[in-house]
Automatic annotation (TrEMBL):
Keyword check for Oxidoreductase: no
Organism lineage string: Bacteria, Bacillati, Actinomycetota, Actinomycetes, Micrococcales
EC main group: transferase
Protein name, entry field: tRNA-specific 2-thiouridylase MnmA
Record function comment: Catalyzes the 2-thiolation of uridine at the wobble position (U34) of tRNA, leading to the formation of s(2)U34.
Gene Ontology CC terms, in alphabetical order: cytoplasm
Family indicated by similarity: Belongs to the MnmA/TRMU family.
Keywords carried by this UniProt record: ATP-binding, Cytoplasm, Disulfide bond, Nucleotide-binding, RNA-binding, Transferase, tRNA processing, tRNA-binding
Record-listed E.C. numbers: 2.8.1.13
Pfam families membership: tRNA_Me_trans (PF03054), tRNA_Me_trans_C (PF20258), tRNA_Me_trans_M (PF20259)
Source organism (scientific name): Sinomonas humi
Length: 376
């Protein structure tokens, strides 16, 4: 129970379906002021009160579980470490992977519960053999299957998503209104919950040693200086403060972050396009495809952002036992060859694979490149 309208309606539907439901709100910080407040958060004291009121209205027990230490270690510290290494992490992905459907689910099962029910817009269906599969929700505009792509077959066995077939968020709000839930008109949460003022660069400056260095163009020429390479991300346009304009006068974007050299490479927007992605830390959302297990190439669609893509890009994918250069990883390397280039793909982000509405699995992006141009 996050304190939002989606989880409140999901709980109401679970009760109506005859399940024995207990509402749980996760306390993810022992200093609530460090989390976002109002409509911009998801785990504050205000949200906890909203979750309690929803449970009270539904007549179900309500508990607050303290996961603050696990959240700090598995999400916040991971976020800092990834930026320190020059990568761009997705903390919501890590929270789903390590908190909501790992730590929470483990505790729930240990206490005798059968499943974790959430207000995510996604669907679990069974194949012909009864194995669980993760699919997109009916409302593609609100579909959250991307951020759930980290779920494993074992976790999907214990997941309930009552909003899966709801055609729109407007219908969820209308239902909340009919049920007398006070969160019916509460705005959606967004941004990073543990960065209270939304200033990621400023927040990181207190956690990572920032050293000034050079900003280079695609030809290796110095065009400016930065106050810390780790605070930049691929695809970034604002905040570059370049001393020398581009020859064509057009904006420049971050093409690469090199933390070891403490340099940032910028260039024209067209150089952001990549057509090959290599991923590590691979997991499969259900039973893996036979081709994945055998190392054969298979066709699918690839998505690298939670929102903003009306359709994911078509791709050919192969799972290799060893990374390029002979250095293996624990679970191999996923090579995603895109039919149409994508822009602004940064190491540390997540690539999620689909066939139709089904989520096949995901990998953390280790490298992305264009095969049509030389390396920068």
């Amino acid at each position: 129970m996050s304190g939002g309208v989606d989880s409140a309606v999901a709980a109401a539907r679970a009760v109506e379906a005859g399940h024995d439901v207990v509402g749980v709100h996760l306390a993810l910080s022992r200093m609530p002021g460090t989390l976002r407040t109002g409509s911009r958060g998801c785990c504050t004291i205000e949200d906890s009160n909203d979750a309690w009121r929803a449970c009270d209205k539904l007549g179900i027990p309500f508990y607050v579980w303290d996961f603050s230490e696990r959240f700090k270690a598995d999400v916040v510290d991971d976020f800092i470490a990834e930026y320190a290494a020059g990568r761009t992490p997705n903390p919501c992905m890590r929270c789903n992977e390590r908190i909501k459907f790992a730590a929470l689910l483990e505790k729930a099962l240990a206490l005798g519960f059968d499943a974790v029910c959430t207000g995510h817009y996604a669907k679990v269906v069974r194949d012909a053999e009864g194995n669980p599969e993760l699919h997109r929700a009916a409302d593609w505009a609100k579909d959250q299957s991307y951020v759930l792509g980290v779920l494993t077959r074992e976790q999907l066995e214990h997941c309930l998503f009552p909003l899966a077939d709801t055609p729109s968020k407007a219908e969820v709000r209308a239902e909340a209104e009919r049920r007398g839930l006070s969160v019916a008109k509460k705005p959606d949460s967004h941004d990073i919950c543990f960065i209270s003022d939304g200033d990621t660069r400023g927040w990181l400056a207190d956690k990572i040693e920032m050293t000034s260095g050079d900003i280079l163009d695609e030809n290796g020429q110095k065009v400016g200086e930065h106050s810390g390479a780790n605070a930049f991300t691929v695809g970034q346009r604002r905040g570059l403060r370049l001393g020398r304009p581009a020859p064509d006068g057009k904006p420049r974007f971050v093409l690469e972050v090199r933390p070891k050299e403490n340099t940032v490479v910028v260039g024209p927007e067209q150089l952001l396009a990549v057509d090959e992605i290599r991923g590590i830390r691979i997991s499969w959302a259900g039973v893996p495809l036979a081709e994945a297990a055998s190392g054969e190439e298979f066709a699918c669609a690839a998505q690298v952002r939670a929102h903003g893509e009306p359709l994911p890009s078509k791709a050919r994918v192969v799972l290799r036992a060893e990374a390029e250069g002979g250095e293996g990883t624990d679970d191999g390397e996923l090579v995603v060859m895109l039919e149409s280039p994508l822009r602004g793909v940064a190491p540390g982000q997540t690539v999620v694979l689909y066939q139709g509405t089904r989520v096949l699995g995901q990998a953390t992006i280790d490298a992305a490149r264009s095969l049509s141009r030389p390396a920068l």
